[in-house]
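Quick bug: NmrA family NAD(P)-binding protein output formatted oddly.
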Amino acid sequence: MSIVVTGASGQLGRLAVEALLDRGVSASDIVATGRDIDRIKEFADRGVVVRRADFADPDGLTAAFEGADKLLLVSTTTVDERVANHRRAIDAAVAAGASLVAYTSMSHADTATTILASTHRATEEYLRARGVPSVLLRNSWYLENYMDQLPLVLRNEAVVGAAGQGRISAAARADYAEAAAVVLTTEGHVGAVYELGGDEAFTLTGLATAISAVAGRQISYTDLPADEFARALTDAGLPADLAHVLADADLGMSRDELFTGSGDLSRLIGRPTTSLADAVAAALR
Ligand SMILES: NC(=O)c1ccc[n+]([C@@H]2O[C@H](COP(=O)([O-])OP(=O)(O)OC[C@H]3O[C@@H](n4cnc5c(N)ncnc54)[C@H](OP(=O)(O)O)[C@@H]3O)[C@@H](O)[C@H]2O)c1
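Here's what came back:
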């Protein structure tokens, strides 16, 4: 049995490989792939098979996925190239005869109205069109997206966003990775659609309150119109197109598009998800 993980040089994919190893999968049964295999050399040192896979290179993908029984398809970063990239990866998984493709999608990808959701919806549709046995891991936001912002939040004494009072079921990357490993190592997931998110959703006002409690300082939430939020992000150094996509994602949050009350994530991993309070405490330690 061979389990291929794409994006293993990235943060989620790396954690997924670790979670597979933790679950007792033999290193030689795991194929960790990335565009730059020097970045995943430590997996090779531990006996994991390491192969180069660039979704822009179909021939290379065929070689990278050879012998794949199951594939974890981690969505790629460049939003405007994402769908074409994913289609090439799905074609290569079909050519390899994979018995399962687990795709890291996004909350409510079938109905959500954001730019990001549209790329995931197109990928989900292509999986169906190709008839490949698949399971959809519809991830909500990462808790780390907010933890990475903490130095700025503390400096400004404000969380800034455009998500209104929308509920966000953010969860830790490690929890999503563990769920992926469970799906890849247990039976009964073909055709399943998991809406994955933290057990306790929060608003950005709630995030500000949680940071205040741990930091011992008053942090407030400033809700901006989406265009002003996008401008604030570009002022902070983000490229304009990414700022636009992120502001659009916040608008989706204001409509609860990143909220799920499914309990799928804690059910899959067999424990409560990492809480916001614990994540903030760990980040500020
Ligand atoms: N739920 C959320 O809050 C959230 C937030 C941000 C992103 N995401 C999505 O979740 C994915 C994983 O998140 P992450 O934090 O692990 O992101 P990350 O650390 O940026 O990792 C992205 C991975 O995708 C790989 N990749 C990018 N383009 C590729 C291509 N053309 N061919 C092959 N591999 C390619 C990267 O490989 P290289 O090392 O070669 O660049 C890297 O391994 C992201 O890519 C994005 O689609 C979700």
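Actually, after a second look the formatting is fine. Residues 115-130 form the longest helix (16 residues). Closing.
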